[in-house]
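As described in the Methods, two query proteins were run sequentially through the folding procedure within a single session, without resetting any intermediate state between them. The first query and its resulting structure tokens are shown here.
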Amino acid sequence: MVNENVSSLKMPSPRGSSKGLWLGGVAFTFAIAAIGFALAAIPGLDHLGPLACAILIAVVYRQIFGYPELIRSGIQFSAKRLLRFAIILFGLKLNIDVVIHQGLGLLVRDVAVIVFSIFVTVGLGKLLKANSSLTLLLGIGTGVCGAAAIAAVSPILKAKDDDTAISAGIIALVGTIFSITYTIIRPFLPGSDLHYGIWSGISLHEIAHVALAGAPAGQDALAIALLAKLGRVLLLVPLSFILMYWMSRKNAGRGSEDTKVEFPWFLIGFILMSLFGSYVLGKSIPISKSALNSISYFTSFILTSAMVGLGLNISLSDLRTKALRPLIAMSITSVLLSFLSFFIA
């Protein structure tokens, strides 16, 4: 009779339990991202930005409480799947039509900036004997579009999750310092506001940094700055395919399954969303500016949540042993880029 009672008890469904833990993991990354956004609204921290704030929170949480293994599946979903989804949505920020019709002249300078940033950062990294993966990611982030570029190329380069998160955090921090420095020195610089706008657009790290630095110079300067930056975002696509070809050649002959380079299908989504945003949204499909701003905010939130998932993989010992030399290489490159690009802007 006792055995019958015991056997009749309903045990929790493993599938239901795992689903709940998965949802808990995703919610956990959302919660830290939300805290990051809240902190970024505080005067002083607003220049730092939600991405950097959220990654810092994730790193501190990891050091104090350890990695939340129980909800790992949901955290990994954010770090992998949501990251690719964020890159696809990021395509809406790129207006291909504007770049083609108004920014072709800037594209030549954008190409030069990307090539300079990658090769100089990697070269300095070799001289400093820095971590090669981090150095390459930082060079790409510096040259193209910051954390979004790092997130896009990481799967192609088979970068480790902690390398991706460390690189994104460094880019956000250093880019913020540079954009604030630009606004401080702007009144003392020779040249017009439009020249300053072009300089900001071809040299600063992320779109948010360009917007921060360009706004004080006026709407025209801000517009040309963002246009120059969008050209660099556009070049993320051919760069990704070049890297994919390079990785395939690099891995040729090794024969191992894990050396195969997966096709970055999310970049196709990025291109399609760019085309949709450039030629359909706002034209065939009317949409208000507030709605576009909401989509942009949602994209930033999803990207931040994904970076939280990656940031939880970072240990402070990794930061000390791996990040210092790549940070020095990237900082030197950024300084050189600022000086040199001022004369070609």
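Immediately afterward, the second query was submitted; its sequence and tokens are:
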Amino acid sequence: MFKTFMNRYGTPLTTGFFIVSGVTGVALFFHWGPTAFHPIHEWLSMVLLAPFVLHLVKNWTSLVNYARRKTLYVPLIIAFAGCIPFFFQAPSGHAGNRQTAFMALPVLEHAPLALLAPLVHTDADALVHRLQAQGYTVSSADQTLDDIAKASGHPVNDTVVAVLQRPHDHGGPGDGSGHGGHHQHPEQHQD
């Protein structure tokens, strides 16, 4: 039964998960698509390991033959050598951006709206109204994002994103931000 399952589903499952991993990987590389692509790429790449193992078991004889003919080693060396430069990059790449975000998140979570408003080019009252328009429970600009998230039943990360989003991303020019939904700052991308 296991052999039948491997023969029937090993390669198709590997193909399906590889397509998802490839598409989300390309989208992340070019900063396209929704932020959901990042966890999709990470988690489904981990799930891809199971059908990959099935594929290896199913094709074990062929793999051994590649090894005997020494045609397996060059592709493996090339693949592993391709990873080496990434260990010597300056931390200004995507990993550095992610580390910076992880360090900044606790600061943002515990800051009151009144202090965050200038960072997003608006005033405290407009920021309160912007969050309320998105369904958050906000009673004053003295509340922290952590307090607002708890009161609203939302994850604090979503609340941080709601504050940092450009106004036209969620409410358009009429959200009271005072900037008509346009900023002069470069697009921020999430990894």
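The chain is about 60% helix and 0% strand. We note this only descriptively and draw no conclusion about the first query from it.
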